[in-house]
């Protein structure tokens, strides 16, 4: 009997892998957790969420070494291990060059891309609407992999298991993910929570806006919700929290979490009624999980931005056309 392979690199991908496992009723499920980010919070969150009893086999691969030679041989080792089995379905949460190389070198029937937030929208608009099947490696690196019998061109149609309402391209299958597994597992006997939750984002850290602008945005949101108790939830990649913490008072507090915010609400049995952020992927997931909540995306002003906002604006456009998320200009 063939196996089913799930490859994840983030906590949200793991959540959607569990949804896919439940929806497709798969058996012989192998989970591969690939750690690609240097900041440790991402890895720690993934490790805390993995329950080995939910999987037939779990592999961990840390590809964060700064030594190219070490990373190269780790990649080959993992590919060789995965080649030992055939797979009915492969579910992956990323399409980076290494994931594409895995797809190029294993036997499988179908490939499904899992959501990793709003990036799914841009991948569908850009990456999946192309005939380019070449792994993004330099000629020399391709040659090195070829010497070890590793192919660098994949031929698969990438299908989607997604919460987003998207129109399929030619030969592409899109299956809608309603997050039924998590809703039936966690969203029972919840308590209404009328606090306002601001989901922080690392906008200065990613050079989208500068720190002063970000603080001005938070002040704007505080005034928008002036008669409410506000709880600020930092993103795991935020590093400049001192100024945010100085804003704390009786109506504004900073609350650190160890879980993705979706699971934080689920485990606390809260039904949050007021949630906001900028373009956080969590807004889309929470919009499905908590349809009665008021969810607002505050739109970054292009005049404040240090980078083009095309991809971010695709997310705002999707919110306005396909969700009940409200957008508010900053």
Description:
There is one protein chain. With 330 residues, the protein is an alpha/beta fold. It has two domains: 3-177, 3-Layer(aba) Sandwich (Rossmann fold), CATH 3.40.50; 184-329, Glycogen Phosphorylase B (Rossmann fold), CATH 3.40.50. Helices cover 36% and strands 23% of the residues. It contains twelve helices and 13 strands. The strands form two sheets. The chain has a seven-stranded parallel beta sheet with strand order 3-2-1-4-5-6-7, with helices on both faces. Strands 10-9-8-11-12-13 form a six-stranded parallel beta sheet, with helices on one face. Helix 12 (310-322) links the parallel strand 12 (294-299) and strand 13. The longest helix has 15 residues, at 68-82. The termini are far apart.
Strand order of the largest sheet: 3-2-1-4-5-6-7
What is the radius of gyration? Answer: 21 Å
Report the top-level CATH class of the largest domain.
Answer: Alpha Beta
| CATH architecture group name of the largest domain | 3-Layer(aba) Sandwich
The proportion of residues in beta strands is 15-25%
How many H/I helical runs? Answer: 12
What number of structural domains do the residues give?
Answer: 2
Structural class: alpha/beta
Query: Largest beta sheet, briefly?
Result: 7 strands, parallel
Instruction: Give the % helix.
Output: 25-40%
Number of strands: 13
| CATH topology assignment of the largest domain | Rossmann fold
Please give the alpha-carbon distance between the first and last residues. Answer: 55 Å
Series of H and E elements: EHEHEHEHEHHEEHEHEHEHEHEHE
Shape: globular
- Parts with pLDDT < 50 across at least 5 consecutive residues: none
Whole-number mean pLDDT: 89
């Amino acid at each position: 009997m063939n196996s089913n392979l799930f490859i994840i690199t983030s906590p949200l991908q793991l959540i959607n892998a569990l949804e896919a496992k439940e929806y497709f009723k798969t058996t012989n499920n192998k989970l591969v957790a690939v750690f690609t980010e240097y900041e440790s919070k991402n890895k720690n969150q993934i490790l805390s969420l993995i329950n080995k009893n939910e999987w037939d086999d779990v592999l961990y691969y840390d590809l964060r070494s700064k030594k190219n030679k070490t990373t190269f041989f780790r990649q080959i080792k993992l590919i060789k291990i995965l080649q030992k089995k055939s797979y009915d379905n492969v579910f992956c949460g990323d399409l980076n060059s290494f994931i594409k190389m895995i797809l190029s070198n294993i036997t499988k029937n179908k490939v499904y891309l899992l959501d990793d937030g709003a990036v799914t929208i841009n991948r569908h608009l850009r990456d999946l609407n192309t005939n380019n099947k070449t792994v993004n490696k330099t000629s020399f690196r391709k040659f090195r992999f070829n010497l070890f019998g590793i192919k660098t061109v994949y031929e698969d149609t990438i299908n989607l298991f997604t919460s987003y309402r998207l129109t399929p391209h030619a030969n592409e299958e899109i299956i809608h993910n309603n997050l039924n597994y998590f809703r039936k597992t966690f969203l029972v006997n919840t308590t209404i929570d009328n606090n306002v939750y601001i989901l922080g984002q690392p906008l200065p850290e990613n050079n989208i806006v500068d720190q002063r602008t970000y603080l001005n945005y938070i002040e704007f949101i505080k005034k928008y919700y002036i008669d409410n108790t506000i709880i600020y939830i930092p993103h795991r990649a935020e590093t400049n929290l001192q100024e945010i913490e100085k804003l704390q008072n009786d109506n504004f507090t900073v609350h650190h979490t160890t879980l993705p915010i979706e699971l934080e609400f689920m485990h606390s049995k809260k039904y949050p009624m007021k949630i906001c952020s900028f373009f956080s992927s969590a807004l889309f997931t929470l919009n499905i999980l908590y349809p009665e909540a008021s969810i607002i995306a505050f739109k970054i002003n292009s005049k404040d931005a240090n980078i083009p906002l095309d991809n971010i604006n695709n997310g705002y456009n999707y919110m306005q056309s396909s969700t009940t998320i409200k957008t508010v200009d900053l």
